[in-house]
Amino acid sequence: MLRDIISNDLYTILLTIGFIIVAIAKLTSPKRFDDFVFVVGNSKYLKIYSREQKFFDKFDALLFSNLVISLSVFIFIIHKYATGGELLSLDEMFKIAFSIAVLILIKVLIERLIGSVFEIDSLIDDYLFQKISYKNYLGILLLPINALLLFSFKPTLPIIYISVLLLAIVNIIGLITSFKAHQSLIKYNYFYFILYLCALEISPYIVLYKVFFAN
To answer: What pLDDT is stored for residue 6 in this prediction?
Structure first.
């Protein structure tokens, strides 16, 4: 029992850090944060702030940090349920968080490289801004989900499925929004679009599934 208490302290700290990071993002950019909260189903945020984007954006960087932490905690919850209560160490949590951050950043860099090679930098920048915004929104959603699963509800398979489904729906909405914004371009480059979809949108999730669930 003592081991559970000690371990839960780690995830409580991580959860608190996530809330603090989001609070800092809101305090430093209150208007932008208020617009960001309604990004799902409302293109106002994407239209306004895509024009102001920079290579390094402090607001996005803060929310990305929360995404990495929150997603790591969510993976811990799934791992704990799947293994019947086996807990992850601090070192394992760090490796998970580092792997998530590296995977997302490498994917973004590859997409930027593709944009540079084919001289479509502005198009790729807009597309990436939309995708990153929706992924950061997932990090916001994970905060209350993680809090409930850690302290209020005992994780069960239906609850985990519902949580994953909710996150998947938001991610799909983000992809559809991005694709609709560039549908004319996709229409005339359908083969390359399918190739991109398989290589950079689907395959990373298959790799993650193999890594965490294949065994």
So the answer is: 41
